[in-house]
Every structure is written in structure tokens, then in C-alpha cells.
Amino acid sequence: MRRNSRKTIYWGSMDIIYRDADFTNAMLFGTYIMVLMDGKMIGGGLVEEFDEIEVKVGQGRFLRNSSTFVLAPPPQCPTNM
Hints:
Strand content: 35-45%
Distance between the termini: 40 Å
Number of helices: 1
Radius of gyration: 13 Å
């Protein structure tokens, strides 16, 4: 559990990744990653590349030491056909 000044956020059911092996697996298996900072979603997508300092997820680059990377189901597209 992580505390935020506005509300409490529970990480219990989400898988947070932080190791190089986790990012490599996400790249190989095409796993959707949600990027959070201070409990708010700031990005998401597939892992394109990573190094010791940052991770490229979708079109954005995010610092590893200040962002949280969570395995998540991809967002659903609207089906208003």
C-alpha cells in the first residue's frame, strides 16, 4: 500500500516491475505497461527500449527512479459500431 496526500492507493493486485529482466519480458511478450508517478497515470504502452536510467514506453521516456511501472491490461477500444 502506498499513501498519497489525497487518497490511499492499493497496489495489492497490480504487478510492479523494476528489474531489467521484467522489462525484457515485457518487450518480448508485448505486455502493456502503465506508468505512474505519485499515484497518477502519466503514460502507458509497450516497452520499446530501456537502460539504467530511463524506459521508453509508447511514445514517452520515463525515469526509472521516479516512475512506477505496472503490468496492466491494455485499454479497451470503444465498440460503438
